[in-house]
């Protein structure tokens, strides 16, 4: 049985304070607190690359033997270079064995869910016992600081999930979707990100809420049987609006990113880490959605051997 044993994250100490940009973008405190919800945005150093952030996340892992790592999967759209894949650079920097399989996945906010499914399948078919799932997408590299639609949203972060045969949480079901017709809603051209916030919000309201209802129905589960709904932290307004549409209390579907921002594929593992430490939730539904347009959800259940 494969699943998530441990998660560690790295958030840079340097931060932008969104209240400093009220005059620049003609916004008020209510817009920051209640609409976007991000009061601070984490920022990596200018000379740091994705692999540097990933290593800092890896160094916080407690229960890992690097000589036993069979594979690395990295979710990123802003790797160190266009070629080669950044997971290969990580293999070298971490001094892992040359028998370690490495590949990157080009996905954004749905990336952790896709990556989790991919690494589980890859490990299972190859008989692997230890794998590392990294996420890191430093969008600060592609943001136009004068663009209100993106400059106030994204923070830098990295995470690593240890996948092995002694898990605390075990994925029980996945569900995915794509609508490529909406690709221009979140779009990067010539190393500059653009986003249509209204289109993203409409996508979340029209697609994600029904996707969750269908996912639960397919697995014969009610919302009451899910202890936590951990959704990609696109903005406070999106999270609260989805919670209202799904008739979920904020304590069950929290917004937790006010101090670091939308961290793309790291959004879900940042929240999952606290669940691994607390181990209060027996069943979690995690959902990522964004660029593509792309979405994916996973039901995680606590390993019975780990039940307290």
UniProtKB/TrEMBL annotation:
Domain Beta-ketoacyl-[acyl-carrier-protein] synthase III C-terminal: 216-301
GO terms classed as biological process: fatty acid biosynthetic process
Residue ranges occupied by any Beta-ketoacyl-[acyl-carrier-protein] synthase III N-terminal domain in the UniProt entry: 103-166
Domain of life: Bacteria
InterPro entries reported for this sequence: ACP_syn_III_C (IPR013747), ACP_syn_III_N (IPR013751), Thiolase-like (IPR016039)
Pathway(s) per entry: Lipid metabolism
Coiled coil: none
Pfam families: ACP_syn_III, ACP_syn_III_C
SUPFAM superfamilies attached to this UniProt entry: Thiolase-like
GO molecular-function term, one example from the UniProt record: 3-oxoacyl-[acyl-carrier-protein] synthase activity
Alphabetic keyword roster: Fatty acid biosynthesis, Fatty acid metabolism, Lipid biosynthesis, Lipid metabolism, Transferase
Family indicated by similarity: Belongs to the thiolase-like superfamily. FabH family.
Protein's recorded name: 3-oxoacyl-[acp] synthase III
Lineage of source species: Bacteria, Pseudomonadati, Campylobacterota, Epsilonproteobacteria, Campylobacterales
């Amino acid at each position: 049985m494969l699943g998530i044993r441990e998660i560690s994250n790295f958030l840079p100490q340097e931060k932008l304070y969104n209240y400093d940009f009220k005059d620049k973008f003609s916004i008020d405190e209510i817009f920051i607190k209640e609409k976007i919800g991000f009061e601070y945005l984490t920022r990596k150093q200018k000379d740091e690359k994705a692999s540097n952030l990933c290593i800092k996340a890896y160094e916080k892992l407690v229960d890992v033997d690097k000589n036993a790592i069979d594979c690395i999967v990295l979710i990123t759209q802003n790797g160190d270079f266009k070629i080669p894949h950044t997971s290969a650079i990580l293999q070298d920097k971490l001094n892992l064995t040359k028998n370690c399989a490495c590949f990157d996945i080009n996905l954004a906010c749905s990336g952790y869910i896709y990556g989790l499914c991919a690494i589980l399948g890859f490990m299972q078919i190859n008989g692997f016992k230890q794998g590392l799932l990294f996420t890191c997408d430093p969008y600060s590299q592609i943001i136009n600081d004068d663009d209100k639609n993106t400059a106030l949203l994204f923070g830098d972060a990295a995470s690593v999930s240890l996948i092995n045969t002694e898990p605390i949480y075990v994925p029980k079901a996945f569900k995915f979707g794509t609508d490529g017709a909406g690709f221009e809603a979140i779009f990067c051209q010539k190393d500059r990100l653009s986003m249509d916030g209204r289109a993203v919000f409409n996508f979340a309201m029209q697609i994600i809420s029904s996707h969750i209802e269908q996912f639960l129905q397919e697995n014969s589960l009610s919302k009451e049987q899910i202890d936590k709904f951990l959704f990609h932290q696109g903005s406070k307004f999106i999270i609260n609006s989805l919670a209202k549409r799904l008739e979920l209390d904020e304590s069950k579907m929290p917004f937790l990113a006010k101090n670091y921002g939308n961290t793309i594929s790291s959004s879900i593992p940042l929240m999952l880490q606290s669940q691994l430490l607390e181990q209060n939730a027996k069943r979690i539904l995690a959902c990522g959605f964004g660029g593509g347009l792309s979405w994916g959800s996973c039901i995680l259940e606590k390993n019975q051997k780990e039940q307290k």
